[in-house]
Design goal:
The chain is built from 12 helices and 10 strands. It is an alpha+beta fold and about 400 residues long. The chain is elongated and about 110 Å long. It starts with about 25 loop residues before the first helix and ends in a 47-residue tail after the last helix.
């Protein structure tokens, strides 16, 4: 005779005696006390079976299959009753209890202003109903000293705090998430408040990493192209014509060069710079005969003043030199989804076919992305062919 308990011994069968029960395990004694003794499984004799059918007389066999739809239709009343009782609230329910558990706060019971805006009115009305006779709702407390000292016009306060160092346009965003340091006359983010740089590394490898490099200096040279190139010949090697290349002079590619002090090559190097000519208009396609061209020199803030001083000493050659770094904002996007991020944020046509060579300059007219700001933070989908470019604006 088989037993439903796998770990039972022959001595644990019913009817052996009280002394034999001491050898049972704790689980077996508990089940025998509360459930009852094990019932032997029905094993009919071979003679009682009906030949050819495999059925056993007197024993009801379980069905081998179950039709789900018929089973649900037969118990539709019980299922509807279960759903109705699960959705129905039992007893009075506070407004706070309608929030998810991760949004509930103990201080809400004292200050209904901590509720979400959609539940603020309902919560305030519920608190007024629960007040005792003669009891009044607690008045708002005096603001903290931090809020009392905060200026009414925060922009004016920010401008007054920039006497010694300059702030980037993204300073407030960075100040909440980074450790700030003073470098080159700017208040710059040094490293994030996170304990690791894994998030930045993951964004750079798989998504898109954006950096604010507006602290780079920008020097504008205005004049004829011949005068500009003649001026830069005193600061660059004579055997390399980097500034005069066709692709750079037409404004299609951003080039790089190394500047030296006036007529001191190969000694007294100032540092590397990137430059870009303003794109020619349709009226003046011949860049050699254009009367006025604009050249932008992007320099590191450590050498901006030295480069500006060298250029201003030679500005009598018919070239106007001025610093416009404070008028421009520049971002650097790095990662596989840099082009896709620009397309989604600025509503641009596909860029992967236009960014064919490194440093290519694209002239685009875009709208204000703040007007099309998504309601939720999302990630862009990869392009059909991942474009591994590093666009800058």
């Amino acid at each position: 005779m088989s037993s439903p308990y796998k770990d039972e011994t022959p001595g644990s069968l019913p009817g052996i005696g009280q002394a034999v029960g001491r050898g049972l395990s704790r689980r077996q004694r508990f089940r025998r006390k509360h459930v009852g003794p094990p019932v032997p499984s029905p094993v009919p004799s071979p003679a009682a079976a009906t030949p050819g059918t495999g059925a056993t007389p007197g024993v009801t066999m379980a069905p081998r299959g179950l039709t789900v739809m018929q089973f649900m239709e037969a118990r539709a009343v019980e299922l509807n009753s279960l759903l109705h009782s699960a959705q129905q609230t039992h007893g009075p329910r506070h407004t706070l209890q309608s929030l998810p558990r991760h949004m509930r706060r103990r201080a809400v019971s004292h200050n209904p202003k901590r509720l979400p805006r959609r539940l603020l009115e309902v919560g305030t009305r519920k608190m007024l109903q629960n007040l005792q006779p003669g009891q009044q709702l607690e008045k708002s407390r005096r603001p903290r000293k931090f809020y009392r000292r905060r200026a009414a016009n925060r922009q004016e306060s920010f401008n007054q705090r920039q006497n010694h160092v300059s702030w980037l346009h993204t300073h407030v965003w960075h100040a909440k998430r980074f450790h700030m340091v003073n470098s080159w006359g700017y208040r710059l983010p040094d490293h994030p408040c996170d304990k690791s740089v894994r998030a930045a590394y993951r964004a750079m490898c798989h998504h898109c990493l954006i950096q604010d490099i507006s602290y780079y200096g920008c020097i504008e040279l205005t004049g004829s192209q011949g005068n500009i190139l003649h001026l830069l010949q005193h600061l660059t090697p004579q055997d390399t014509g980097g500034f005069g290349s066709l692709s750079s002079s037409e404004g299609r590619v951003e080039g790089t060069a190394t500047l030296y002090r006036r007529d001191c090559y190969p000694r007294c190097a100032l540092g590397p710079v990137t430059y870009m000519f303003r794109t020619l208009t349709e009226n003046s396609q011949d860049h050699s005969t254009a009367s006025s061209r604009q050249l932008w020199l992007w320099t590191h803030p450590a050498i901006t003043q030295d480069v500006l001083r060298e250029l201003q000493q030679m500005s009598h050659t018919g070239v106007c030199v001025q610093s416009i770094g404070h008028e421009l904002v520049r971002f650097r996007l790095t990662g596989q989804l840099a082009a896709a991020t620009l397309e989604a944020a600025l509503r641009l046509p596909p860029l992967q076919n236009e960014t064919g060579q490194p440093g290519q300059v694209l002239s685009l007219t875009v709208g204000d992305p703040r007007l099309n700001m998504p309601s939720k933070r999302t990630k862009v989908t990869p392009l059909t062919t991942a474009s591994k470019v590093t666009p800058e604006n």
